[in-house]
Design goal:
Elements: E1 2-8, E2 13-20, E3 25-29, H1 36-45, E4 48-53, H2 65-72, E5 75-79, E6 89-91, E7 96-98, E8 102-108, E9 117-123, E10 133-137, H3 156-170, E11 179-182, E12 202-203, H4 204-210, H5 212-215, H6 219-226, H7 237-246, E13 259-260, H8 262-270, E14 274-277, H9 281-286, E15 293-294, H10 301-308, E16 315-318, H11 333-345, E17 352-356, H12 359-365, E18 374-375, H13 378-387, E19 392-395, H14 399-404, E20 406-407, E21 411-412, E22 431-434, H15 439-450, E23 456-458, H16 464-469, E24 474-475
Parallel strand pairs: 3-4, 4-5, 5-6, 10-11, 13-17, 14-15, 14-16, 16-17, 18-23, 19-21, 19-22, 22-23
Antiparallel strand pairs: 1-2, 2-3, 7-8, 8-9, 9-10, 11-12, 20-24
Helix pairs in contact: 3-6
Length: 479
Amino acid sequence: MFIEPVRIASLSNTTYVVGSELSGWCAVIDPVRDIDHYTSIAANHGVRINYALETHVHNDFVSGARELAATTGCQVGASASGGLLYPSLRLKEDDELDLGEFKLRVLHTPGHTPEHISFLVIEKDREQDRPTAIFTGGALMLGGAARVDLLGQRIAPFLARWLHNTIHSKLLTLPNDVRVYPTHGGGSFCSASPPPGDNISSTIAEERENNPFAAHEQEEDFVEFALTGLGSYPAYYKYMADINRRGPDVLGEIPRLASLTPLSLRHQLEEGSLLVDARSQKPFNERHIAGSFSVPLGDNFSAWVGWVVPWQKPLVFLSPDPASDDSLASRDSPASRDSIVRQLIRIGYDRFNGYLDGGLEAWQQAGLPLENTNQIDLEALHELSGHSQESLIIDVRQSNEFQAGHIRGSLNIELGELSEHLDGLPRELPIIALCASGMRATIAGSILQRDGRRDVRVVDQGGAPEWVSRGYPSQTGSE
């Protein structure tokens, strides 16, 4: 028997291929939409994909289960109470899936979502019915559990009580040596856990000893803990469950971005396409195409696109270019474009109208205009804030970051909510955007410039934590 993890950094998730070379069968647990990872693993082991299994109806990404079924002929298996509207096995507590050398037994583990299930691995040559591993989705994670508030604040306390029963009456009663393989990883906006480091699995004994959800044994204490300190999450989440329930469109293959000439790109923009500039923050602020969204390519690229770029709009891209961008992502532009596409199809952004071939150099050579964003460093900002009250400083970090320490007099508007507050921001004042390191501030600057504001400045190197560490005027709390 083998278990091969596939880590999806852009989602802070891990999916799994579990199978047997003896039987020639395998299953994929919580697949994402670019399924070539899984078909390659199956081919390497010489096995057939029999099942694409879902632990729950995902709120943070588009499932690849239907894509796998269309490509390989496998069966989709999901919770009977999940309400999938396309053909699938309706799985219930104690149902079993035979994979030859082992079987997967269904355990109902609600909390993160009402229909959530986990999959126990029962190896047939071991002691009868004694599990050796469990795929827990978001029901139990390394040092935590997935959040309970994604379906709304009203239902969150109820789900938290359900999660208490799942963890304390079901999962922690399993044998100590059972290995725990979660889908959600710490650091995901879908989780209530810190980043796990390099580990992808632990054991029931380790979680019982180290997991703070395990430490809160009393239900009321557990519920209070589960509902405390939950930050905001990307706007695209609200679309995911419905797409996954209905069944995502089948792509057939990974889309490729078409190359566009500068004039073709200009035509696309005139027709309503949105330009996402994936270069890093400094090159963007020095020069960019008017109206573009800055979203630097990296592990959080899809999260920020899904947070700030309007849903279901046709997209065109400026990918990192070796001639103008020294970021790591720029070293292989075809790979960068592949990363852009993979990250975005995972969250349902499918309308790709191409990328600018030749980058900004080609745009300039075609005689087309560029603009810049004014940059300001912390020292200059300190001098300005000491002599003038005529600038509005917007700190676009999350509220818990802001409350831990911020520039005195600054206004906290989380980056994901900035577009909703544009009408309330004065147009007669210069606006200075900052965050922790400059990336989110640059994204904010691009949103403000798209709103027609010309006096926008961005702190694109350093940010509020460095301001506080320098001893400049700062405060804590929400004001």
